[in-house]
Amino acid sequence: MLNDHGCQITYVTHSDPKGKLPLWLVNRITKTVAPKLSRKLHKVCLKYPHWKSEHAPHWKPWLFPEQQINFRRINISECQPRDYDQPIIDETKVSSKDFKGVLEGDDEDND
């Protein structure tokens, strides 16, 4: 249950590496990125009130829509996916054993 001093975050992601990454790696990334992001976001949110008190404390366009009048409008044509001309490297044969020692600290929150 949320109160007036909290929020709820829903994190949804979809990734299609086109079969060029080993499934174990895609699964590992999926299981570690969201929790790390949540922990880091929580950490900075705790510091936000102090930071905001020193950085334009009255600027709150999410509460006062009139503060958004001079915002640049988003052009939908600038939001289209781009086609990057990069070679596709097939790494499907890479084993998790190749990363022994590298992936052990995945769950730590190192800043």
UniProtKB/TrEMBL annotation:
Protein name stated in the entry: START domain-containing protein
Q: Which organism is it from?
A: Acrobeloides nanus
Every copy of the START domain together lies at 1-50
Q: What residue stretch is flagged as signal peptide?
A: none
Xref: Gene3D superfamilies: 3.30.530.20
Q: Which GO terms describe its cellular component?
A: cytoplasm
- Going by the entry's taxonomy, the superkingdom of the source organism is recorded as Eukaryota
The Swiss-Prot or TrEMBL record annotates one GO molecular function as: lipid binding
PANTHER family from the xrefs? PHOSPHATIDYLCHOLINE TRANSFER PROTEIN, START DOMAIN-CONTAINING PROTEIN
